[in-house]
Specification:
Helices cover about 55% and strands about 5% of the residues. The longest helix is centred in the C-terminal third of the chain and has 21 residues, at about 180-200. The radius of gyration is 19 Å and the shape is globular. Strands 1-2 form a two-stranded antiparallel ribbon. The protein has helices at about 30-40, 50-65, 75-85, 90-105, 120-130, 145-160, 180-200, 200-210, and strands spanning about 10-15, 20-25. The chain is mainly alpha-helical and about 210 residues long. It has one domain.
């Protein structure tokens, strides 16, 4: 969830009932794909600053104190964790993040109202949230293409994958560049949205309903 994302592929377990002792558990798929990306992605290794660590600690504290009566943030965090067990190049990762974003921001549209389509809801609500984010999304990799156009193409990519069509980044999806670039944008959008839910859960509930 943090801007500087730390990949922890194992869990330390302590049994306070049986007595002193501890163990380590891990999810094999997640561990494998985390290590798989280490020699492929130049951005995999990060130099952490004190501010980065303070941000991670702050998010953890907010999660511990969070009241999930409005939005079950923990469920979305677990879904993000589950996606990490998929291959990095898998289109299911992109679909998974997009589904989480839709779950956070949208409601089932009225089929007779074209203005309630999921595409329009996602575009409009991401744009509204961006006005409240201190660190907005980075659209620089997409050149001078407007965010509204980018999100239209993101939804086209999502639809191609969901309906079994073979997407091509040389045609109408050209502005997205490639799968990795589109995945990075949807992933950062989901993380920003969840972090905002920790700050203003009522706003997310209101956005979902409108």
């Amino acid at each position: 969830m943090a801007p500087c994302e730390l990949e922890v592929a194992f869990t330390i377990l302590r049994d306070h009932v049986a007595g002193p002792g501890h163990g380590i558990a891990y999810i094999p798929g997640r561990l494998f794909h985390v290590l798989e990306s280490a020699d492929r992605d130049k951005a995999f290794f990060n130099r952490l600053s004190r501010d980065d660590l303070d941000t991670v600690a702050g998010i953890h504290q907010k999660l511990q104190a969070y009241d999930e009566s409005l939005i079950n943030v923990g469920r979305f965090v677990q879904q993000i964790s589950d996606l990490k067990a998929l291959p990095h190049e898998s289109p299911l990762r992109f679909l998974g993040y997009f589904t989480i974003l839709e779950s956070l921001l949208t409601h089932a549209p009225e089929l007779t109202d074209p203005y309630e389509s999921l595409r329009r809801q996602v575009k409009k609500k991401v744009a509204l949230l961006e006005h409240r984010w201190a660190n907005p999304l980075d659209y620089a990799p997409f050149g001078k293409t407007l965010p509204d156009t980018i999100w239209s193409k993101m939804y086209d990519y999502r639809s191609d994958l969901a309906h079994g069509r073979e997407p091509s980044f040389t045609g109408r999806l050209r502005v997205l560049g490639n799968h990795a670039r589109a995945l990075r944008l949807i992933k950062e959008t989901v993380k920003l949205t969840i972090r905002h839910a920790l700050e203003e859960p009522q706003l997310l509930v209101d956005l979902r309903g409108c």
